[in-house]
Amino acid sequence: MSAKPNFRALIAPVVLLSVALPCASEADQTTSRWETALADTKPIFNARLRYEGVEQEGLPEDASALTYRFRAGFETGKIFDTALLVEFDHIDDLIDDFNSTINGKTGYPVVADPNATELNRFQLTNTSLPDTIITLGRQRIGLDDARFVGNVGWRQNEQTFDGARVQNSSLGELKVDFTYIAQINRIFGDDSAVGRWDGDSYLLNLSHPTPIGTLTGFAYQIDVDNAGGVFSSQTVGARLAGKQAIGTGKLGYTVSYATQSDYGSSSLDYSADYYLVEGTYSVEAVTLGAGIEVLGGDDARGFQTPLATLHKFQGWADKFLTTPTTGVEDIYAKAAYQVGDIGPFSGVALTAVYHDFSADVGGADYGSELDLAASAKWDKIGITLKYADYSADDFATNTSKFWIQFDFAL
Q1: DSSP element (H, E) containing 52
Q2: What is the secondary structure of 82-126 as a DSSP string?
Q3: How many angstroms separate the CA atoms of 247 and 244, rounded?
Q4: What is the rounded CA–CA span in Å between residue 15 and residue 22?
Q5: Sequence-separated (6 or more) residues with CB below 8 Å from residue 193
Q6: pLDDT score of 271
Q7: Cα distances (angstroms) measured from residue 83 to each of 16, 24, 138, 182, 285
Q8: How many CB atoms lie within 10 A of CB 359?
Q9: d(C-alpha 366, C-alpha 89), whole Å
Q10: C-beta of residue 295 within 8 angstroms of C-beta of residue 310
Q11: How many of the other CB atoms lie within 10 Å of CB of 81?
Q12: Which residues of 307-317 are buried (b: 16+ CB within 10 A; e: fewer)?
């Protein structure tokens, strides 16, 4: 089933551009401006090839997915302080032994990279107002660390948003970021019944530097009409992230708290809390860290982050994309080492993360996970190796995943 595109947000840039066109008496000046905008136009092109293998207990088949993505478009120079960006994605597979969520291969584990050819971004960006950036249309949005709002860039088909965003810095060091969203274009694509979410959502993010780090306050009212409104919620919270020099290294820290409840079209009645405490210490090429992240539980609903870049959090095996009603407590430790250059490879880096998962309510032992990654560049090609191994106790099933990925961009 193909969802109809939401043209309310997509047509807004065209309307804005038509209003900006000058009268005929300024034709020569207008021609010059158009020529300058066209001369400053920059192409957009990147390509990605990825193999993902999945072994998941309880399914009769193992997944083998070899997929690729081409992303291409352009961004013009500015005319009347406005730039146009147009970008398309094409995603396809070379090996299709996996459940893409729309290909019907339910005997395989899910690899959420379905085939698609679609408009990824279509936006106008205007800077005519002092200290203000206005973006209209289909756009990429990532707020803070993408824990609540992100573009899910790990998947081949990223998440984008149809709407209007205003970023303002006219109040000194206070940054104001407000977005209205009419449609959420999810990673599953146009051909999926859950590929588009409609509704009226509002994102407010305020940040200000302090001597101990950047303090951020946020309020996210997400109203999704689809699926009976179960993804609708309002979340209000704050975040502090900073670094301080200690000895020969740097101490990094992040603390965050939020509370969430039902909102808009939701038929649920619930309230759940979120908190994060994380610390890291870096000395030269080595970084060590540990933290605890809790998404609270409620009898009706666990704390949800449906617009987040979820793969980045709670383990790369993606076992907690939906928070159980008993919540999730994630206690983790991580280590990273910046190796540097080795032969033809530059920027070689190694990462390891260990997670221990349990229920926020009731204390059930969900399971544990080990995540390993290595990354490097070879000329203009980025190379990533990743491995995730989830060992189940009282939640889900044993799952291991392996990735090898190649990225190229102009």
Answers
A1: strand 42-56
A2: EEEEEEEEEEEEEEEESB-SSS--TTS-B-----EEEEEEEEEEE
A3: 10
A4: 14
A5: 1, 3
A6: 97
A7: 11, 22, 14, 22, 40
A8: 19
A9: 37
A10: no
A11: 12
A12: bbbbbebbbbb
Q: Which amino acid is at 368?
A: S
Predicted pLDDT at 27: 64
H or E segment and range at residue 179: strand 174-185
pLDDT tens-place string over residues 354-381:
999 999 999 999 999 999 999 999 999 9
**Superfamily covering domain 7-409:** Porin (2.40.160.10)
Quickly list DSSP for 281-333. EEETTEEEEEEEEEE---SS-----TTS-GGGSS-TT-TTSS--TT-EEEEEE
pLDDT in tens, 141-173: 999 999 999 999 999 999 999 999 999 999 999
Tokens of 14: 């065209």
Collapsing DSSP states into helix, strand and coil, what is residue 166?
strand
* Cα 215 from Cα 174, distance rounded (Å): 10
The kind and range of the H/E element at 8 are helix 7-20
What is the rounded distance in angstroms from the CA atom of residue 334 to the CA atom of residue 26?
61
What's the whole-number mean pLDDT along residues 274-302? 97
- Here the tokens at position 193 are 């019944």
CB 120 within 8 A of CB 139: no
pLDDT digit string, tens, across residues 306-355: 999 999 999 999 999 999 999 999 999 999 999 999 999 999 999 999 99
Burial of 172 (0-12, 13-18, 19+ CB in 10 A): exposed
Locate 137 and state its tokens. 């249309």
What Cα–Cα distance (Å) separates residue 88 from each residue in 45, 75, 85, 349, 410?
10, 12, 10, 31, 15
| Residue 121 to residue 88: CA distance in whole angstroms | 7
- In the chain, DSSP finds a helix count (H) and a strand count (E) of 2, 18
CA distance 211 to 243: 10
- Residue 35 carries which DSSP code? H
Please, which residues bridge with residue 170 across strands?
Answer: none
pLDDT band at 26, cuts 50/70/90? Answer: low
Query: What is the average pLDDT value for the chain, to the nearest integer?
Result: 94
219 band by pLDDT with thresholds 50, 70 and 90: very high
pLDDT at residue number 227? 87
Which stretches of 176-251 are DSSP H helices?
Answer: none
Tokens of 205: 């993010």
